[in-house]
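Saturday, quiet lab. Running sequence design on the structure tokens for the scaffold JK sent over.
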């Protein structure tokens, strides 16, 4: 907060205003003068004039006692511009910046952010944050870089088409997904087009990994996740394996290598305006937080220079990426692990817990957690405020252990209990004293995968369900997957 020197300003009416927005000593000085007017040879009175607010002091000073006036003014920190006839104490007033934009769909955005659970986007912007200095890459089917609402933030230096092997990432008219995801993040503000991106001053790149009738492979996925890793701060990924309830795939070796080299994932869920999980959402132990989404979807851009709305987990991932861009602007030194801690500490679970308490548990650290919503709805204002004061977490250490079980048997009434002794690699360079993230690599074979459910229990008797029943899955399967919590 800035400190201003109080100044006595002369007006034609001989009324002087004491400009002091924050110096609390001023009030005490005037109170003191009121009690000791005879000692200073000054006359003071409280203003009852209806044209002035009653909380102000009106002070009348004898023109013949100018030296006393000078001494009082200087000892109180005032700058004297002329002989004082009247001095008035101005009460500090609370004023807020009004952030408003002329984009036609901005009002609709404000309304959607104000629905339950509330997203404090405008309040975060009021702190001076807009994603400036942060670069985000959208891994998808391309971005219409010539769109009126995207060309100002699009950055060709961090864009590439990994399918066609070219720099141009322009999609065709049926490939709309990437352009819609990009708009949520970085639509230009105040240009009378569509809406306003959450991180409207960020730089946006497009990495094409999806195209109609073209299949993504491990090499493409790995290349994209490692592309210009020193220039790109956030990779936004709004897609995955087939959502058919049967497919369960882990990243290939090249994609895993790219992740190990610096890109760590943050998984985002969705909460409806009713505080419930939407029909398309999947429960997952890796979800760390959620985005609140109104029934009308999110305002965004579309191909052919149009505006649109988008909903679902694709919109949630883009929305979260933009919020994290605001946090990175607030504190550019944040690492992925720092961001993960900040999300856990600042997300709001209270509103969602009140609606569906049955979906929440208390973990070993005493924090509320849900496999549907993670640690709660992202709170942009709380997240960015905490980011400015955050001290980076210590260096990461890793510890792993292998366990093989041959022909383990279990039934619905007699589950297979597997004890995983773990000392945290005590006494080694990889010693782990507390757990940030746990990854289980699981390979199993069973004649009916849909009957299998995996649960993990901690020493604090905290249970987390890693895999759920899917009774429609009847085929024999050899499942190789990883479960991240």
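Result came back. Writing it out in full:
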């Amino acid at each position: 907060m800035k400190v201003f020197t109080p100044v006595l300003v002369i007006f034609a009416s001989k009324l002087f205003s004491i400009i002091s927005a924050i110096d609390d000593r001023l009030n005490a000085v005037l109170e003191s003068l009121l009690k000791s007017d005879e000692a200073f040879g000054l006359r003071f009175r409280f203003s009852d004039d209806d044209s002035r607010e009653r909380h102000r002091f009106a002070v009348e000073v004898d023109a013949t006692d100018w030296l006393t006036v000078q001494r009082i003014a200087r000892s109180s920190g005032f700058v004297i511009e002329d002989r004082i006839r009247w001095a008035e104490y101005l009460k500090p007033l609370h004023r807020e910046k009004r952030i408003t934009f002329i984009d036609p769909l901005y009002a609709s955005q404000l309304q959607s952010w104000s629905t339950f659970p509330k997203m404090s986007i405008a309040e975060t912007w009021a702190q001076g944050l807009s994603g400036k200095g942060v670069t985000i890459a959208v891994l998808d089917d391309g971005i219409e870089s010539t769109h009126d609402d995207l060309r100002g933030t699009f950055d060709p230096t961090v864009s590439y088409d990994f399918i066609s092997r070219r720099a141009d990432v322009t999609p065709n008219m049926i490939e709309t997904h990437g352009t819609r995801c990009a708009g949520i993040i970085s639509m230009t503000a105040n240009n009378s087009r569509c809406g306003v991106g959450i991180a409207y001053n960020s730089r946006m790149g497009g990495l094409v990994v999806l195209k109609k009738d073209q299949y993504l492979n491990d090499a493409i996925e790995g290349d994209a996740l490692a592309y210009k890793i020193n220039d790109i701060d956030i990779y936004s990924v709004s897609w995955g394996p087939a959502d058919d309830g049967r497919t369960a795939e882990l990243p290939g070796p090249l994609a895993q290598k790219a992740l190990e080299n610096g890109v760590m994932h943050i998984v985002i869920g969705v909460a409806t305006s009713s505080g419930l999980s939407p029909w398309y959402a999947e429960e997952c132990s890796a979800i760390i937080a959620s985005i609140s989404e109104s029934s009308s979807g999110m305002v965004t851009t579309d191909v052919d220079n149009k505006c649109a709305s988008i909903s679902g987990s694709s919109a949630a991932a883009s929305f979260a990426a933009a919020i994290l861009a605001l946090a990175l602007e607030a504190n550019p030194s944040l690492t992925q692990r720092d961001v993960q801690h900040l999300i856990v500490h600042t997300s709001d679970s209270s509103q969602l817990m009140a609606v569906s308490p049955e979906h929440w548990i208390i973990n070993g650290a005493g924090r509320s957690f849900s496999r549907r919503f993670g640690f709660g709805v992202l709170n942009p204002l709380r997240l960015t405020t905490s980011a400015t004061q955050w001290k980076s977490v210590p260096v990461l250490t890793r510890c792993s252990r292998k366990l093989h079980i041959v022909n383990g048997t279990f039934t619905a009434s007699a589950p297979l209990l597997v004890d995983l002794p773990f000392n945290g690699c005590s006494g080694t360079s990889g010693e782990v004293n507390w757990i940030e993230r746990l990854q289980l690599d699981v390979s199993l074979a069973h004649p009916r995968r849909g009957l299998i459910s995996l649960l993990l229990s901690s020493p604090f008797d905290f249970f987390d369900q890693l895999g759920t029943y899917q009774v429609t899955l009847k085929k024999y399967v050899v499942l190789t997957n990883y479960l991240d919590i």
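Notes for JK: The longest helix spans residues 313-330. The radius of gyration is 30 Å. Ask whether to fix the surface positions before the next round.
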